[in-house]
Structures are given as structure tokens and as C-alpha cells.
Amino acid sequence: MILKTILGLALFINGGHIVSSNFKLHHYSDEDYKDIFYLKQNKSITKHCERHSELENIKKKKSYHNQEQKTVYKVTKHKKNDSSEKPA
Fold first, then answer.
1. Strand 54-65 vs strand 44-49: parallel, antiparallel, or unpaired?
2. Most exposed of 31, 35, 68, 72 (fewest Cβ within 10 Å)?
3. In this structure, are residues 50 and 28 in contact, taking their beta carbons and an 8 Å threshold?
4. HEC states along the chain?
5. What total number of domains does the chain contain?
6. How far is the C-alpha of 34 from the C-alpha of 31, rounded, in Å?
7. Which among 29, 86, 76, 33 is positioned nearest to 55, based on CA atoms?
8. In this structure, is residue 84 part of a structural domain?
9. Mean per-residue pLDDT pooled into runs of 10, the chain (88 residues)
10. Angle at 60 between CA 5 and CA 79, to 5 degrees
């Protein structure tokens, strides 16, 4: 119940946006943002960024600076698996 309230508040304030570790702005749908919000530390997930119109890998990390804990998202472009590519 408390986590759903925090999620709702975060979604209302951020509007589905997150700032990556390299200070770029990314926007995800409400359902994707929910999945990112509940992501465990040092785990990653692939979601569609509406701002960049491409799949992106998002990794959630905890960062400590001046005895303060912060959540940092490392966002990278999703690379297709070589096995999924069709031979010429």
C-alpha cells in the first residue's frame, strides 16, 4: 500500500521521466515506469523509451555520496542478439 502511494506520487511528479547517469532525459509509459520503479538494485530491464523511440536497457544502482543514498539509472541502447539476425 505504501509502495503504491510512493509510486503514484513519483509518477505524478516525474511524469514517467527518468534522468540517466549521463544526465540524459528518458520518458517511459506508465506501465514501463512502474516496472522500472520496482526494479531491484543491480538488476536491469529492457523498455521502450518514448522520447528516443528505441529499446533501452535500464540498470538500477544505489549511489552513496556524502553519507546520502541516491538511486541512479544507467541507460544504454539495447543491442539485438546476433542469433536473432537473419542470414543474408
1. antiparallel
2. 68
3. yes
4. CHHHHHHHHHHHHHCCEEEECCCCEEECCHHHHHHHHCCCCCCEEEEEECCCCEEEEEEEEEEEECCEEEEEEEEEECCCCHHHCCCC
5. 1
6. 5
7. 76
8. no
9. 79 80 89 90 93 93 87 88 47
10. 125
Point out which residues pair with 62 in neighbouring strands.
71
Q: Is residue 88 part of a domain?
A: no
C-alpha cell at 88: 543474408
Residue type, 55: L
Q: Does residue 14 sit within a domain?
A: yes
Let me know the angle formed at the C-alpha of 69 by 13 and 44, rounded to the nearest 5 degrees. 75
Is residue 51 domain-resident? yes
- Residues spanned by the domain of 19: 2-79
